[in-house]
Design a protein that fits this description.
Length: 284
């Protein structure tokens, strides 16, 4: 078989595999949308759950999810950003640095239910936060911390090394080089990692199951020590509830569709923010 024929065969195979992945994705989204669009109305989004979640809306679950997303990333982003800067720019290239990188990668691959058990043991029981937004946000922050650290580190490493050398040649300190030269160039990729973390937090069920999620709580939270409903756990409850299967199943599809739309929104926002910041950096 000639090289050109082999290349054509492989490219065709790659296109078919890519098409298959896209078809599977659209099949899943289309199925959820077909079942959930009939339920996804303004009253469903803005209403409170009623009759054991067989009627009404899911607004408390939406608010709870947004609270957990915001709280976890307010905690994780500063810590992850500074940790990534340290590992990339300040840590000596030795065994300790490589050990930190290995542990960060291992933490990123740890099953989320482990984080949930850890959060329950430390934040809920040991520190006495109870089942609360604070405990859930801290647990989710630890969950997404490796993603932010690695995205920051890789974004800084991707900057042209000549930028560092030019900055040092002009007499800038290492921190001035990071702050004024490297971070502006790496910012689009860093923020992309942050928004991807938003998407991951929005869909996690196991960590909030042990630390914050309430089965049925038709009211808004008033402090960080309150329990909340959350969309992933709400979807799980609706899918496994045996009170009224027909009623809860339709609400489950509506909740799943809304959750998909939230994730899709942050993914689109990631692409748009990255493009805008990349244009701004190129202009500067």
């Amino acid at each position: 078989m000639s090289k050109k024929l082999m290349q054509a065969v492989m490219f065709t195979l790659f296109r078919l595999l890519s098409l298959m992945v896209v078809c599977i994705l659209f099949s899943i989204v289309g199925f959820i949308a077909y079942r959930g669009l009939a339920v996804l109305r303004p009253q469903f989004i803005t209403g409170l759950p009623e009759n054991g979640m067989t009627e009404g809306g899911i607004f408390p679950a939406i608010v709870g999810t947004l609270c957990l997303m915001t709280g976890s990333l307010l905690i994780a982003f500063p810590v992850g950003l500074l940790s990534g800067i340290y590992v990339s720019e300040f840590a000596p290239d030795n065994r300790l640095k490589r050990f930190i990188q290995i542990m960060t990668n291992s933490l990123a691959g740890t099953p989320s239910i482990i984080f949930g058990l850890f959060g329950m043991a430390l934040f809920v029981n040991q520190l006495g936060f109870g089942d609360s937004i604070l405990a859930g946000s801290l647990t989710l922050a630890i969950l997404v911390l490796p993603v932010i650290i690695r995205s920051t580190e890789e974004s800084l490493n991707a900057v042209n090394p000549a930028i560092r050398q030019a900055s040092y040649a002009l007499g800038a300190t290492r921190w001035q080089t990071v702050y004024r030269a490297l971070l502006p160039l790496a910012l689009p990729d860093i923020l992309s990692g942050l928004l991807v973390s938003f998407s991951r937090v929005s869909g996690e069920t196991a960590p909030i199951l042990f630390t914050v999620a309430a089965y049925y709580l038709p009211r808004m939270p008033s402090s960080v020590y309150d329990q909340v409903m959350a969309l992933p756990y709400h979807l799980y409850v609706l899918s496994t509830s045996g009170t009224d299967p027909e009623a809860t199943r339709s609400m489950a599809y509506g909740t799943a569709l809304l959750l998909i739309l939230i994730v899709l929104f942050f993914n689109v926002l990631t692409v748009l923010v990255r493009r805008l910041l990349s244009k701004y950096v190129n202009i500067k």
